[in-house]
Design goal:
Radius of gyration: 23 Å
Protein name: ABC transporter ATP-binding protein
Keywords: Antibiotic resistance, ATP-binding, Nucleotide-binding, Transport
Strand content: 25-35%
Bound molecules: adenosine-5'-triphosphate
CATH superfamily of the largest domain: P-loop containing nucleotide triphosphate hydrolases
InterPro entries: AAA+_ATPase, ABC_transporter-like_ATP-bd, ABC_transporter-like_CS, ABC_transporter_ATP-binding, P-loop_NTPase
Pfam families: ABC_tran
Distance between the termini: 32 Å
Subcellular location: Cell membrane
CATH architecture of the largest domain: 3-Layer(aba) Sandwich
Number of helices: 10
CATH class of the largest domain: Alpha Beta
Number of strands: 13
Oligomer: single chain
């Protein structure tokens, strides 16, 4: 095993009674990586993370975190910060008390004021958890995950329910963590966020890992898209693909086809209205999952 291996999952199977939620799942995450585990609803992402976090034993297979079993709390807990989808903070505690309590349980040390500032909660330090908004509770979850600068941070849908400013500041905090070499594993349904930030993406569907790779590797298998429309009476363009009165062209030769189209528009004196041209997005890889 190389020393850079932070998470090593081999042939993981997770079951609930007779139901198999995750099967044949293998993936590795290396030190300093941001790995996004994405998937359709019910794909098994949270079940997988629960095993990685040591909250659920696998039905079979092997999971190693920093070379140890996730159940080995003394070895793993001080090095791993976790932001669950739903936290269980006591509603009567203040934000400061909650961060202090969970921080102390982590076995790491930190300055609570610093952590509150990182999570944008300084103004809410004395507010009781019961009085926090949904977005503020997510920030509190984030604060406890990053308390003490763990080597590995697991974020389960970290930006769900956050407004755009809060999302931006959470990602800025994640970027700062990464600058210090922290490894990050996250799930999200905001695919753009993963596309922008993940070093590698694992795509799960119905309990198995269907695809894995960098964004470029995942999108390489699908065509890029050019869309535009033409003014009434314009001649036929050199490429075809009609959609709702406009044009929607799928191509594996984006540069070539775009060059041809622009040349035609210039030579014909025809404006290309609402022109867009771009690579395939992770959304499209997602939509293709069912047919794989
Ligand atoms: N405690 C449980 N008991 C029985 N089935 C469960 C339990 N937890 C999850 N499941 C089932 O296991 C499957 C995987 O669920 P999981 O929460 O891991 O998916 P997910 O990928 O995180 O989904 P989502 O994106 O919707 O949050 C689903 O079919 C779910 O209904």
């Amino acid at each position: 095993m190389t020393t850079s291996l932070v998470i090593d999952v081999e042939d993981l199977r997770v079951t609930y009674g007779d139901f198999t939620a995750v099967r044949d799942l293998s993936f590795q995450v290396h030190r300093g990586e941001l790995y996004a585990l994405l998937g359709t609803n019910g794909a098994g992402k949270t079940s997988t993370l629960e095993v990685v976090e040591g909250h659920r034993p696998p039905a079979s297979g092997s999971v190693r975190i920093f070379g140890s079993s996730p159940q080995d709390r003394n070895a793993v807990r001080p090095r791993m910060g976790i932001m669950l989808q739903e936290s269980g903070f006591s509603p009567d505690l203040t934000v400061r008390e909650s961060v202090g309590l969970v921080g102390a349980l982590s076995g790491r040390r930190d300055d609570i004021g610093r952590v509150l500032a990182v999570a944008g909660l300084t103004q809410k330090a004395s507010t009781r958890v019961a009085q926090l908004s949904g977005g503020e509770k997510r920030r509190l979850d984030f604060a406890t995950a990053v308390y003490g600068g763990p080597d590995l941070v697991i974020l389960d849908e970290p930006t769900t329910g956050l407004d755009i400013q809060s999302r931006d500041s959470l990602w800025a905090a994640v970027d700062r963590l990464r600058d210090t070499g922290t490894t990050v594993v996250l799930t999200t349904h905001y695919l753009e966020e993963a596309q922008q930030r993940a070093d590698r993406i694992g795509l799960m569907h119905e309990g198995t890992l269907r695809q894995e790779g960098t964004v470029a590797e995942l999108t390489r298998t699908l065509p890029a898209v050019i869309t535009f429309s033409l003014p009434p009476g314009a001649p036929e363009p050199p490429i075809i693909g009609a959609l709702n009165g406009g044009f929607h062209v799928e191509t594996f030769s984006l540069q070539h086809d775009l060059h041809r189209l622009l040349g035609w528009a210039h030579d014909s004196g025809v404006p290309l209205l609402d022109l867009t041209a771009g690579p395939t997005r992770i959304d499209d890889v997602f939509r293709a999952l069912d047919s794989n």
